Amino acid sequence: MKRVIIVGATSGIGRALASLYVAEGWTVGLCGRRTALLDTFGSAVRVEPMDVADTMEARQRFGDLVSDLGGVIDLVIISAGTGFVDNAFPWEKEQETIMTNVAGFAAIAHAAFDLFRRQGFGHLAGISSVAAVRGGPVPVYNASKAFVSSYLQGLRCRAASEGTPITVTDILPGFVDTAMAKGDGLFWVASPEKAARQIYRALEKRKKVVYVTRRWRLVAILLRLLPERVYRILLCSSQEHRERYQE
Questions:
Q1: How far is 129 from 171, CA to CA, in rounded Å?
Q2: Is the peptide bond prior to 82 cis by the omega test (within 30 degrees of 0)?
Q3: Phi and psi at residue 115, to the nearest 5°
Q4: If you write DSSP's letter for every residue of 142-184 in order, what string do you get?
């Protein structure tokens, strides 16, 4: 029976993925800060409380969950992340995002990759965002997601250079109907369940980069090609867009 650990499974895409993997018969381990929200899964899953921002403790708890699941894991999905919209632009919110989305992500991604190296195989997937493509009006969020995508690409390169059969997948959602999606009039909004189904199918195919939903690949291409001046006019100069970004 295959084993998966999902970090950040208390809500949104992570929770929808947890439900899907349980339904598909996997042995499932879940991590999150609000573990009471994971109690609804009952005995179908193993639960480990974790705040990825506390990096040392998070790595220890990750190791504990690996041991609890038998010591061998096929797939690790890192869905934990945060983001804030605050026009006052306080440093405290920037720092919290960095500690969760950058330091916390890297701590668990490194732990998972190290586990897979010892096993000799494994599959690591991280939830980034289409926001990773360019900087935006919520600077730390876009930058933190760019870090996630770049770190995953670096791990993929390292696995290739070492000749280790480790698959690394970068998942870039567009707008998903979660607490992280801000503002009215959002377009191409997917439910967490639809996003989870697309992610599950892509991971089964061991894809390297996944856009959710798939049409967001077109948006990413356009964002990369837009001249800086046009990009600022369309996105960065609009107060409305400052209230539209998502996990």
A1: 7
A2: no
A3: -60, -45
A4: HHHHHHHHHHHHHHHHHHHHHT--EEEEEEEE--BSSTT--SS
Helix (H, G, I), strand (E, B) or coil at 216: helix
φ and ψ at residue 27, rounded to 5 degrees = -80, 120
The DSSP secondary-structure symbol of 235 reads I
Residue type, 227: P
Tell me the CA end-to-end span of the chain in Å, nearest whole number: 30
The tens digit of pLDDT for each residue in 224-234 reads 999 988 888 87
Q: How confident is the model at residue 154 (pLDDT cuts 50, 70, 90)?
A: very high
Whose tokens are 């730390």? That residue is 140
Instruction: Return all residues near 82 (Cβ < 8 A) that are at least 6 apart.
Output: 96, 97, 100, 101, 247
Write down the pLDDT at residue 237. 59
Tell me the whole-structure pTM to 2 decimals.
0.90
Active centre residues (catalytic)? 141
DSSP 130: G
- CATH classification code of 3-242: 3.40.50.720
Instruction: Give the whole-angstrom CA distance, residue 133 versus residue 141.
Output: 11
What is the pLDDT at residue 163?
A: 96
pLDDT average, residue stretch 5-22: 95
Q: What is the pLDDT of residue 187?
A: 56
- Cα–Cα distance, 216 to 214 (Å, whole number): 5
Alpha carbon 47 to chain centroid distance?
Answer: 18
Domain residue ranges of the chain, discontinuous segments joined by +: 3-242
The confidence band for 240, taking pLDDT boundaries of 50, 70 and 90, is very low
